[in-house]
Write a structure and sequence with these properties.
Length: 284
């Protein structure tokens, strides 16, 4: 049985990766007290001692506001962390899959889908650090993989952390009449986290580099919500939607490179429907 070293097991994505792969891989999932990713010596020792086949690195500070307020800490965790793991992997030959973010595209002003090789200059600290980590990983360990993840969604699962996300917001609107403020000027994929988890294994033999990793953009969030309400037979809930017109963002992902690696994702609309079915919401 091959071994996975998983960081960030207590997080939204890490917890689901652990649950999904625990029966088919030997998973080592250290806490922060057991492995400090910001300490190069600690990383080298821990990775060398355990010699995993794969490292799936999900630990991060992902709160963009916190990163802006604490730039040094953001750099230590979001840049030094994956860099230290890459240096250790270079010694052991472990395959590193590190989580990056679609926030690297946060400053683009066009509306076309973003490609991995586009020149970008993120406007927020989180995106800047994720981009720096990608570049440094490529220099240290060209075989490493960096995944530009989208905003992910899921509905609550017993014993797994579930933050407020697009699916929980929609369900709250359906069940409790929650008013939602969304934009028709936002271009992004929003991804069912279960598909992210299932597709990670396909990367174990994929070429190294950066991949856009998530659902392609199909509808802006405001229009997407109207489509979902219509699908659920709740078209009257569109009256609860507020269209934010003073906002523009394009985090949409070009899928060409990902598809060439044999990986694809559902559209956000199909992913939401799949999520609601699999969670037995009774709405579909």
């Amino acid at each position: 049985m091959k071994t996975i070293l998983l960081t960030g097991k207590s997080g939204f994505l890490g917890a689901r990766i652990y649950e999904y792969y625990d029966s088919s891989y030997n998973i080592i999932a250290p806490s922060h007290s057991e492995l400090d990713i910001t300490d190069e010596v600690d990383c080298m020792h821990f990775v060398s001692e355990n010699n995993p086949d794969y490292i799936i690195h999900t630990a991060a500070i992902a709160d963009t506001g916190y990163c802006e307020a604490h730039p040094d800490e953001s750099f230590r965790v979001n840049v030094n962390g994956p860099v230290n793991l890459a240096k250790a992997c270079k010694t052991t030959g472990s395959r590193l899959i590190s989580m990056s973010s679609d926030q690297v595209y946060s400053a683009v002003v066009h509306v076309k889908k973003n490609k991995e090789n586009d020149i970008v200059n993120p406007k927020n600290k989180y995106g800047q650090d994720k981009l720096s980590a990608e570049k440094m990983l490529n220099e240290i360990l060209p075989d490493a993989i960096s995944l530009r993840l989208t905003w992910m969604f899921d509905l609550p699962i017993d014993k797994l952390v579930t933050k407020t996300n697009f699916a929980t917001m929609l369900l709250d609107s359906v069940n409790n009449g929650r008013q939602l403020t969304l934009s028709n000027n936002e271009y992004r994929g929003i991804t069912y986290v279960r598909e992210v988890v299932e597709n990670i294994e396909k990367l174990f033999t994929a070429p190294g580099g950066v991949y856009n990793f998530g659902s392609p953009h199909d509808y802006p969030p405001y229009m997407l919500a109207t489509k979902i309400f219509e699908y659920l037979g709740k078209a009257e809930l569109t009256n609860k939607l507020i269209n934010r017109t003073d906002y523009f963002s394009n985090l949409s992902l070009d899928q060409t490179k990902l598809n060439a690696a044999g990986i694809s994702f559902s559209s956000t609309l199909d992913g939401i429907i799949k999520c609601m079915k699999e969670h037995n919401t009774g709405l579909i």
